[in-house]
Design goal:
Elements (H helix, E strand, L loop, with lengths): L4 H13 L7 H17 L7 H5 L2 H4 L2 H20 L6 H15 L14 H27 L1 H11 L14 H26 L7 E2 L2 E2 H8 L24 H7 L17 H6 L26 H37 L1
Helix pairs in contact: 1-5, 6-9, 7-8, 7-9, 8-13
Length: 334
Amino acid sequence: MMPGFNDVLSSLTTTFLDPSKRVFVGYLFLAAVIGALVWMAQGRSWRHYPRAVLSRRIWWSPSARADYQILVINQILFLFLAPWLLSHLTLATWLFEQLHRWIDTRPSVGLGWPDWSIPILFTLSLFLLDDFARFWIHRLMHRVPWLWAFHQVHHSARVLTPLTVLRTHPIEGVLFSLRSAVVNGVCIGGFVFFFDSRVDLVLVVGSNVFVFLFNLAGSNLRHTHCYLRYPAWLERWLISPAQHQVHHSAEPRHFDRNFGAVLAIWDRLYGSLLVSEPTAPKRFGVTRRRRPGEQKLVTLYGSPFLQAARVIRRWVSVRTTTIKQVNKEGRAHG
């Protein structure tokens, strides 16, 4: 069935009114309150805060307008794509059945454990696995050239707003959807197999309790110009809004740093952690200089395909040349 106007409107409304969503209006309001506290802690008058936050230069900049357009277009696209994407329940069911085949006798784990322990273990495991998977695929998107072609749409934002988190190319959206399905499917299928019906998710207003706390603590400030730093020791454990703004910096020395979503431990393990500096980055974007038409939809949606095709064609050409050279040397030695 073709999605209609009401379907699109409902999808957009859910984005802002569902507490399990990152840009839920309640989280946006709390981020604004935290931003005001940071503003005043920097010695500035609270009277000037609303004007700074609601500045037309931010919310009606070419970059912000591109955010809004991408949000609407992607909502429409994924209404079409949703029936074709892998669901976590499908994967969980498959994994559950495979475990039955691989293990003759279904084990009963944690029979003497307190009733509350298994939901907490499941919720924590899901959070950790999901956060690590986000870090890993984010890292790949920066390190693999053809993936970077699509991910740079997100980094092309010159002005950061909370809606920049939804500024993604549809190809990246599909990859993150698959990541979510795999993480949830593996956790659900594995835990239900080993712990049976005792498995439950600790939720707060429909969100994993750890994700809820993350959003409650001002997660939306990450895509703003409010430079909220944590103490250096804490930034070695949790990614602060300032650290994520460093990740978006157009300065080459900041490239490929702070891939983590919530936890900083993954960046520490892989050597990509950078604690925030006293001053905020001066420029955001893929490059220091603005490129003509960089915020146009035809560029944001079309250019990544061309760039990815060039990368793949170059890779194929190098591989073909190498194989020919190896064969030629082999014949010469033969």
